[in-house]
Design a protein that fits this description.
Layout: E1 3-7, H1 16-23, E2 27-32, E3 50-53, E4 57-64, E5 71-78, H2 82-89, E6 93-97, H3 101-113, E7 117-121, H4 133-145, E8 148-151, H5 154-162, E9 170-172, H6 180-183, E10 200-204, H7 213-225, E11 231-235, H8 241-250, E12 256-259, H9 264-273, E13 276-279, H10 288-295, E14 300-303, H11 309-312, E15 318-319, H12 324-335, H13 350-362
Parallel strand pairs: 1-2, 1-6, 2-3, 6-7, 7-8, 8-9, 10-11, 10-13, 11-12, 13-14, 14-15
Antiparallel strand pairs: 4-5
């Protein structure tokens, strides 16, 4: 059985089904740096998925987003423990996430051990438009030496192509999560907002500036000023909660709720209880909440700054949160009941994605 090493900063819950599937084919270990202080993710890693936290320096940085003036708190991971963990495990294949020191170490080991190294990339032309010169130089070096790539969707592929990666070197998949939770029809599917005015407009995500929730509240305020009745519901936690509540009062939103983070089964009920899901993000490399809402059967309106938008949604369901005119037109379609329903045929299941990756890795034994 081939030994597969996956190098990542943290184990994201949405990736666990794919990791578990790969563990059934490979002697696999995930080498990671542990969780980050600003993450609220909680996940159970199954016993079949071996993981090891390696010595890692986490350095907080303020990352520029694709929108000038909007910053996000990120962490640089210097996974120094890989220098001795990789020789100890002696993998036959390496999959490394993103383009940083972790991937440099992976490529160097791959060169010395003559094994294939795959770089799994998620960023888009929008999310990476303001990166530092140092990052640009490192990525140029990585692109020069990496011959195998996994991209998390069309917009991630577009970014790799812009760096000069040949299209034939890119395995394009989709970002995905465990869709079974959101396909299940709960007995209390419409119980959440039965006493609230319709339509119920829902958004789910961190309460941080990058998510563009202030733009959604302002747009809803303009709808309220036109005499339209509705309920706006946000689900999530974060430092912007007080500011968003104040903004809702400023725009005189009569029916406005913020719910804390919910379990996936509860989220399924919430999606199904809403009339439309809106993702007003100013930057997301994908936007898995769109997948979740679509699997639950909820119509979706999505910001053009989410990487998933052109791949999963028709143009009529995509808007620019930086444009009042675009946002107002999107919300008007809710009241006109003209939002296109979700087309789940555009979605890939985690089983399809894991099968695609597994097939590519199994057939790759040619070394670097």
């Amino acid at each position: 059985m081939k030994r597969l090493a996956i190098l990542t900063n943290i184990i994201a819950p949405y990736r666990i089904p794919i990791y578990a599937s790969l563990a059934g084919t490979f002697d696999q270990i995930i080498l990671h740096g542990g969780t980050e202080p600003n993450r609220t993710w909680t996940c159970q890693v199954p016993e079949s998925v071996k993981d090891r936290k390696v010595l890692t320096l986490q350095i907080p940085v303020q990352k520029k987003t694709g929108i000038p003036g909007i910053f996000d708190t990120n962490y640089l991971h210097f996974n120094l423990g890989l220098l001795w963990s990789l020789p100890r495990f002696r993998p036959n294949i390496i999959v490394t996430h993103e383009m940083g020191l972790r991937t440099v170490i992976g490529l160097l080991y791959g060169k010395l051990a003559q094994i294939p190294v795959w770089v799994w990339w998620e960023g888009t032309l929008h999310s990476e438009r303001n990166i530092t010169r140092a990052r640009s130089i490192i990525r140029s070096l990585i692109v020069r030496h990496a011959k195998r790539w996994i991209s998390s969707g069309r917009t991630s592929t577009d970014y790799l192509l812009s760096l000069g990666v040949p299209r034939e070197h890119i395995l394009q998949i989709q970002l995905c999560g465990p869709q079974e939770v959101f396909l299940a029809v709960p007995s209390s599917a419409n119980a959440w907002f039965k006493d609230q005015p319709r339509p119920v407009i829902l958004s789910v995500g961190q309460l941080i500036p990058r998510k563009g929730l202030n733009k959604l509240i302002e747009a809803c305020g303009r709808q309220e000023a036109c005499g339209r009745e509705f309920t706006l519901v946000l689900v999530g936690q974060g430092p912007e909660r007080a500011n968003l509540e104040q903004l809702a009062r400023q725009f005189s939103l009569k029916h406005f709720l913020i719910l804390p983070n919910q379990s996936q089964p509860a989220l399924n009920e919430i999606y199904r209880s809403a009339d439309v899901f809106v993702l007003p993000t100013l930057e997301d490399v994908w936007g898995l909440v769109v997948n979740e809402a679509m699997w639950a059967g909820t119509p979706v309106l999505c910001s053009k700054y989410a990487g998933c938008a052109p791949e999963l949604l028709p143009e009529t369901n995509i808007f620019d949160p930086m444009s009042n005119e675009s946002m107002d037109a999107a919300l008007a379609s809710v009241f006109e009941r003209s939002v296109s329903p979700p087309d789940v045929s555009r979605l890939k299941t985690w089983q399809q994605v894991s099968s695609t990756i597994c097939h590519a890795l199994q057939n790759d034994s040619t070394g670097c």
